[in-house]
Design goal:
This protein is α+β, with helices and mostly antiparallel strands. It has six helices and 15 strands.
Length: about 260
């Protein structure tokens, strides 16, 4: 069965800014088609079981490999099924309204000008992750594709040294299946993000205490949340987090001694 045509994408990331969040936050609701979402989930769930790493509150895969203890990635390409269509599509959206020959893209200033690593996290109902930051191992851009089910991302202001984190998130972002969320700039460096360990996401609306990207959600999901009274019982959700690891080491150089190479 052939994949259907690609979804309608914004002409630039300027059209995808989440205006009620820091201005370096971008949301695209229909980044992947339903067929592409289903195909990706099938590929993710068909990998050999040892590919999954089981943690206390979720399980994950790292592609092309986990980082080393020194936060280095051994050079290898992403699997083709993770690269296409996501990476070309992501890099096809200019960061500002300009002629294509003069446009910059969200990974233009990163060391490798494209994501070279993908972390796949699976969250079943009541599973989450504590507020955290991605750190200096990565260039400060993260692009997350959501699959399977919607979920709310809680974003907190990063506390200064010696201060406690706020009890309530500064922003709540709803991620629909098939959506793309990009965080860079101050959203990446000045905030923590996490997912609450709950069975039901609540306050799914555009008012006070709701989600800051409500007006950007697809009509289908807005209708479904409204019919459910602004709540949604969690289902299994899978996230694909694409980043550019700063330190990359050639496997040949790292194991040069095996072939008599010099250090």
């Amino acid at each position: 069965m052939a994949a259907p045509h690609i979804p309608n994408l914004p002409t630039s990331l300027a059209d995808a800014i989440v205006h009620s969040a820091p201005p370096t936050t971008y949301y695209i609701p229909n980044f992947l088609t339903p067929w592409e979402q289903s195909h990706l989930l099938q590929r993710i769930n068909s990998v050999p079981l040892p590919t999954w790493r089981h943690l206390s509150h979720r399980r994950l895969q790292a592609h092309p490999a986990p980082l080393t203890p020194s936060n280095t990635l051994l050079a290898a390409p992403l699997p083709p099924w993770l690269h296409d269509p996501i990476i070309p599509r992501l890099l096809s959206i200019p960061s500002a309204n300009a002629a294509p020959s003069k446009s910059s893209y969200v990974f233009t200033d990163s060391p490798h000008q494209a994501p070279n690593h993908c972390l796949i996290n699976e969250y079943t109902p009541s599973q989450g992750i504590r507020p955290h930051e991605d750190g200096a191992a990565y260039h400060p851009v993260v692009a997350t594709v959501s699959l399977g089910a919607p979920i709310v991302l809680d974003v907190y202001r990063k506390p200064a040294s010696g201060e406690s984190m706020d009890a309530q998130p500064a922003y709540r972002i709803l991620q629909e299946p098939g959506s793309l969320l990009i965080s860079t700039g101050g959203m990446y460096t000045e905030h923590l993000h996490g997912i609450a360990e709950v069975d039901v996401d609540e306050n799914l609306h555009g008012g006070k205490g709701g989600v800051v990207n409500w007006d950007m959600l697809s009509p289908e999901w807005k209708k479904r949340f409204g019919e459910a009274g602004g709540k949604w019982e969690r289902e299994t959700r899978v996230s694909l987090t694409f980043r550019d690891v700063v330190k990359v080491k050639s496997l040949g150089k790292g194991l040069g001694f095996l072939s008599g190479g010099k250090k």
